[in-house]
Amino acid sequence: MAVSIVIFEDNDQLRDSLVSLLELTQQYEVLAARPDCSEVKELVESLCPDVVLMDIDMPGMDGIEAVRQIRQVDKNVQVIMLTVFDDNGHVYDALSAGANGYLLKKYISDKLVHSIQEVLAGGAPMSPAIARMIINNMQQAAMPANNYQLTNREKEILQSLSSGNSFKMIAAELTLSIDTVRTHIKHIYDKLHVHSQVEAVRKALQEGLVK
User: Does residue 97 sit in the same domain as residue 172?
Assistant: First the structure.
């Protein structure tokens, strides 16, 4: 049974090319190809396609709002965004709205058929640049938002504390006096807003301040 597809793309030449590309084989059936999203809810609800190919930059209602409209009537249809935009705002807005994949138009001829197969198999097809951007953003988000303005020495001492070392052991390890270590630890407590070694270590581990 052919995979049913609805296309929303305002560029007439590209829209016709998409239809031709998909209908080259018997795997895909294009149920509708529209230049705008004025009837997006009605079309999706009545045609029940397997996949929607959605441009972002559309006249009238844009593609992101159209995805929100689709999700009001169909939670299961797979939506792949087709766009020239690869910036954070468009990517996250589209995914938050309910898109399942995000393909840059410059990769359409090479990646579209595979992307449709991937999304139907439960994957989340994305252009390499989009996937890399999302990974980078996730990694940045995972980094501690606040290092509490700890000095390098305070970080060294906090790391040693988290390893279970005593004040005396820290002093020996860093060639400091016990009084100097105590002073640094007091500053660490003040900056972390804690009152004990246990609290300091727990907070440092939870927020990634130490390894």
Answer: no
**Residues 6 or more apart whose Cβ sits within 8 Å of residue 117:** none
Are 79 and 156 members of one domain?
Answer: no
Whether pTM exceeds 0.85: no
Rounded-to-integer distance, Cα 129 and Cα 196, Å: 46
Count the domains in the chain.
2
Q: What is the pLDDT of residues 158-189, one digit of tens each?
A: 999 888 888 999 999 999 999 999 999 999 99
**Residues spanned by the domain of 62:** 3-142
Cα 89–chain centre separation: 11
* Distance separating alpha carbons of residues 13 and 180, to the nearest angstrom: 73
Token code pair at residue 81: 């965004």
CATH number at 172 reads 1.10.10.10
At position 157, the amino acid (one-letter code) is: I
Residue 52's SS3 state is strand
Spatial neighbors of 143 by CB under 8 A, at least 6 apart, are 208
Give pLDDT tens digits for 48-89. Answer: 999 999 999 888 999 999 999 999 999 999 999 998 876 667
User: 30: helix, coil or strand?
Assistant: strand
- Regarding whether 33 and 118 lie in a shared domain, the answer is yes
| 202 within domain boundaries | yes
Residues 92 and 51 in one domain: yes
Same domain membership, residue 119 and residue 34: yes
Instruction: Name the residue among 91, 89, 50, 84 with its Cα closest to residue 70.
Output: 50
Chain centroid, CA 80 distance in Å: 15
